[in-house]
Design a protein that fits this description.
With 472 residues, the chain is an alpha/beta fold. The protein has 14 helices and 18 strands. The strands form 3 sheets. Strands 1, 2, 8, 9, 10, 11, 17 and 18 form an 8-stranded mixed beta sheet that branches. Strands 5-6-4-13-14-15-12-16 form an 8-stranded mixed beta sheet. The structure holds flavin-adenine dinucleotide.
């Protein structure tokens, strides 16, 4: 087990000393900010949040009905949060992976897999049609085993995938290392077509521009403080204004929900990432990686990593941190202890890159729900829709999330709205401090299972039985 232990103050930390604590993707001049809302306005549809969910909702609403008057209200700037700081894995999976989907929606998986591929194809087409410059590369994804028990689990995946109409290929250790060279790899599974790598911030900015071109009214620096449905329209209060809308779509992700009942379903979990300086030709030759697949390893606590278009490596994941009370404040974006652990694991994976330095280190919140895949809801007599819960796999799924939210707001019955995945909610989290204690216990139990050849202890088995186990 190459990643055992929580240490992380070793020599690898020297590679971190010059990092900038800003998401690599957002480290450049931002677009001109849209004006904050001042005064009262009316709209057909008000969208709250301008991450991918909100932006896809606005864009798709306009393409369904160009005459619809759509207003987007964003508390800060479009794409500043998860959508601008993620790993850029744009996956076809709507269910946070095959196993998680099979555990929760076994009968629906052939449909969910097909809808997921159609969704990814549609994202690719939109990016092409609208000329969104986000380095969209349909590289596919390689999941690597770094321990024999992980290889045993991965070896079963191609057979399971075939049963639901998807294709995966098992690769033995030599075949994996011929693609990307790490002494830790003992096998892997290749999904050749089911994922693209994107520049996440440029995707968000491209969607923002497309919305503006279609006449969407965007107000940044405009946090919505509350919703009131007592009148004919739904009123959204902002610091210096008010929108009265016929319908409202909420894409507020892991942040404090505007609907109180939502708070039981989503917890903000911090995820962290590093980016290296560009690799020299020699360093690149030492790792291979010619096909530029996105990579992740197959532990319960896993890393995800990929190449950027200027030849750096983004390396993230492993530690998933929840703070008592669901804190999302900015100071938590820096976590030196987590960065040090990540750096150490990076050089365990690629010892041949010793001497490479990291340039960026940051964190962001993930909207985690107990089934690790999105869920939908509505309020105020169906006039307000919401979607959240992507749990770290929302780059692609957020477009599907937006489509379903719009179907439901329109009162349409579609193949999507009839899915059990759409109709059912996840198991709610308990209130604090039980919530915090349960999440800490789970994190420790997952690390323990990784250290013990994948064997799940009593706590994880109890969660599995309650429908809250994690297996992506
Ligand atoms: C470090 C990290 C790595 C990740 N890696 C991947 C990956 O590789 N692949 C993948 O698929 N997913 C990944 N994810 C998850 C993915 O980024 C998210 O699922 C996705 O961006 C969710 O988009 P969203 O629009 O729902 O949320 P967000 O991008 O978080 O947007 C929500 C927006 O709502 C706004 N808002 C909230 N409340 C209000 C309010 N009251 N009024 C006005 N505005 C409000 C916020 O300011 C924010 O801009 C990662 C996430 C993180 C943090």
């Amino acid at each position: 087990m190459p990643f055992a232990g929580e240490a992380g103050r070793g020599p690898a930390s020297a590679a971190l000393v010059d990092v900038r604590h800003v998401p690599f993707w957002l480290d450049g001049p931002p677009p001109e900010t849209a004006p904050a809302l001042a005064g009262r306005t009316v709209a057909d549809l008000a969208v709250v949040g301008a991450g991918y969910t909100g932006l896809w909702t606005a864009l798709l609403a306009k393409s369904r009905d160009p005459d619809r008057d759509v207003v987007v209200l964003e508390g800060r700037t479009a794409g500043w949060a998860a959508s601008g700081r993620n790993g850029g894995f744009c996956s076809a999976s709507l269910t946070h992976g095959l196993r998680n989907g099979l555990d929760r929606f076994p009968d629906e998986m052939p449909t969910l897999e097909r809808l997921g591929r159609e969704n990814l194809d549609a994202i690719e087409k939109t990016v092409g049609d609208l000329g969104i410059d986000c380095s969209f590369e349909r590289t596919g994804e390689l999941t690597v085993a770094t321990a024999a028990w992980q290889a045993d689990e991965l070896r079963e995946l191609p057979g399971l995938a075939a049963q639901v109409g998807s294709q995966l290929k098992w690769l033995d250790g030599d075949e994996v290392r011929a693609k990307v060279d790490s002494p830790t790899y003992v096998g892997g599974v290749l999904d050749r077509d089911g994922a693209a790598m994107v520049d996440p911030a440029r995707l968000a900015r491209g969607l923002r521009e497309a919305c503006l071109r279609l006449g969407v009214r965007l107000h940044e620096n405009t946090p919505v403080r509350g919703l009131d449905g007592s009148g004919a329209g739904v009123s959204l209060a902002t610091p210096y204004g008010e929108v009265v809308a016929r319908q409202v779509a909420l894409g507020t992700n892991a942040f404090r929900p505007l609907l109180r009942r939502w708070a039981a379903y989503v917890v903000p979990v911090w995820d962290y990432a590093l980016v290296t300086e560009p690799l020299s030709a020699g360093q690149r030759a030492a790792v291979g990686w010619a096909e530029r697949h996105g990579l992740s390893d197959a532990g319960n606590l896993f890393h995800y990593y990929r190449l950027t278009d200027d030849g750096r490596i983004l390396w993230g994941g492993y530690d998933a941190v929840y703070h008592l009370g669901g804190r999302t404040d900015e100071q938590l974006e820096r976590s030196p202890a987590t960065f040090a652990v990540l750096a150490e694991h990076f050089f365990t994976t690629f010892p041949q890159l010793e001497g490479l330095r990291f340039t960026h280190a940051w964190g962001g919140v993930i909207d985690t729900c107990s089934r690790f895949s999105p869920f939908w809801g509505s309020a105020l007599g169906g006039r307000v829709g919401y979607v959240a819960g992507y749990t770290g796999l929302g780059v692609g799924a957020s477009r599907f999330g937006a489509q379903v939210m719009l179907d439901r707001l329109a009162g349409e019955q579609t193949e999507r709205t009839e899915l059990a995945m759409v109709r059912r909610k996840p198991v709610p989290f308990p209130p604090e401090p039980l919530r915090w204690a349960g999440i800490q216990l789970t994190r420790r139990a997952l690390a323990k299972a990784d250290a013990r050849g994948g064997r799940r202890g009593p706590w994880l088995r109890a969660l599995d039985a309650a429908g809250m186990g994690f297996d992506s």
